[in-house]
Design brief:
The structure is a homodimer of 275-residue chains.
Chain A: H1 6-18, E1 24-25, H2 27-34, H3 38-54, E2 58-63, E3 69-74, H4 78-92, E4 98-99, E5 103-104, H5 113-126, E6 134-138, H6 143-153, E7 157-160, E8 171-177, E9 184-190, E10 199-207, H7 211-222, E11 226-236, E12 250-259, E13 264-269
Parallel strand pairs in A: 6-7, 6-10, 10-11, 11-12
Antiparallel strand pairs in A: 1-3, 2-3, 4-5, 8-9, 12-13
Helix pairs in contact in A: 2-3, 4-5, 5-6
């Protein structure tokens, strides 16, 4: 890269950091990249850090010493997250979303890149200080949420399949009871998809009793993995507390009531906002 | 937002643009956001534009006039894309990836946020000047590629299901013959997932004869939609030309040979790099 003026360097460094979240970049690497003294780089980073933190873009963590450098950690302030989530809840309450069985049609919303980026950033903020090696979800609707979170945390995603596909090699399968069908179903994960002893964050789009998530946890047990956290986009509040299979999870929205006659639902911000 | 110094403003504007690809932002909006004169904003944008274009980050399109403003369009130079793709091809050639039936295990690679961001940017570059309303893929492995592309182009994704889920409402189903199983299979899309007359970019992870993609095209016909393009991550070259069901597609990599005895495969950059 040719030598840049400070103003241009600030633009380039900003994009360099933003596209490499949760990645430690040494001062030396920056100094080489921009053919500049480390002292100038440090001044640039101080400016970027201030803007990122004042404007709620993320944290710029500085590590001192020989192995030191900077790491950009995206976050979203809770006040900003709550504003966005309230708008999402209003959309989820649109009457034509109520489907038979008390489900909500939200596939269209899970197709919007902007919403996904926001939700991914919320999950990344909620789980940013946990040790996580990999994010797990089950096909299909949780997949975009898992990837949006993974992009912020810079960790890989594994997708649990609802059947055992030929193109994945040997796999581990378990049975579980899904709350939606009340029937025994199968989910499986390729043996090579997950290293043993991994710390795994589970992300899914919707949770009622928690049967599907419990299934993923059972599967993780087979891989000797640890559950680092559970995040769901929408939880159903229409579940008796004693029915719920898990307690330790974060929800971003909560479906508190569905009136099948009027096709009216009530959706409020989830437990993440009521700590 | 409080008034920022020029250096801080450049950092903030850079992140603002990067997180809003393919979105027109008016000079007035920027002037209000930063409480600065339009002339200062224009100078800032000129600096950002130069860096983005010199460093191959993207194009900063400037639209003059009352409805004018700037639009950031991510791209990747073909030379940079080819360098990255060559490394991806080497990974795809690892011997333990060859699966029964001449398939390649690449689920792990499709779980890596960095690779996905690169590949999404390549597809976005390849299709950036076409009119596209929505990106379509079929579950499961094409999904992360579709979202990575959608994030760059700022357009929504629809996912075709391999069965008809209860939680999606009324759906259109079609039958197709998948090259991998040679059996008749079903794919379906919720009626409300796609507006009629949409321009649709099809993205998938792997193409052999093209049966699955042909199925998606048949489904699009039912929605009176137009195919704006087809992009596949890896195409199999082990197909007779007359067998291939479609001609107009972009591939990023091509699997030219699989030796089942030695479990050795050969993967080269795809037709995108041989125009």
């Amino acid at each position: 890269m040719k030598k840049l003026k400070r103003s241009s360097r600030l633009v380039e460094m900003t994009q360099y950091l933003l596209t490499r979240p949760h990645t430690l970049i040494s001062l030396t690497a920056f100094a080489d990249r921009y053919q500049s003294a480390k002292s100038s780089i440090s001044e640039d980073l101080a400016i970027i850090k201030e803007v990122f933190e004042e404007e709620g873009i993320g944290e710029l963590q500085t590590l001192a010493g020989a192995a030191g450098g900077v790491k950009y950690m995206p976050f979203m302030r809770e006040s900003a997250a709550l504003d966005i989530m309230k708008k999402i809840c209003l959309k989820l309450e649109q009457p034509d979303r109520v489907l038979p069985g008390g489900y909500l049609y939200m596939t269209d919303m899970l197709g919007q890149p902007e919403l996904l980026a926001d939700v991914g950033r919320m999950f990344a903020t909620a789980f940013s200080h946990r040790k996580i090696d990999v994010i797990m979800t089950v096909e299909t609707k949780g997949i975009p949420l898992a990837y949006a979170t993974a992009a912020c945390l810079n960790i890989p995603v594994v997708i649990v399949r609802r059947d055992n596909k030929v193109t994945e090699g040997s796999a581990v399968s378990i049975n579980y009871v899904s709350g939606s069908t009340k029937r025994i179903q199968t989910m499986s994960l390729a043996r090579r998809a997950l290293k043993e002893q991994s710390h795994v964050l589970i992300i899914d789009d919707f949770m009622k009793v928690g049967g599907t998530i419990q299934g993923m946890m059972d599967l993780l047990y087979e891989f000797k993995a640890t559950v680092a956290g559970v995040g769901v986009f929408v939880e159903s509040g229409e579940v008796e507390l004693e029915e719920r299979l898990l307690e330790d999870y974060i929800s971003l929205a909560k479906l508190t009531a569905v009136d099948m006659k009027t096709k009216q639902s009530t959706v409020i911000p989830g437990n993440y906002f009521h700590k």
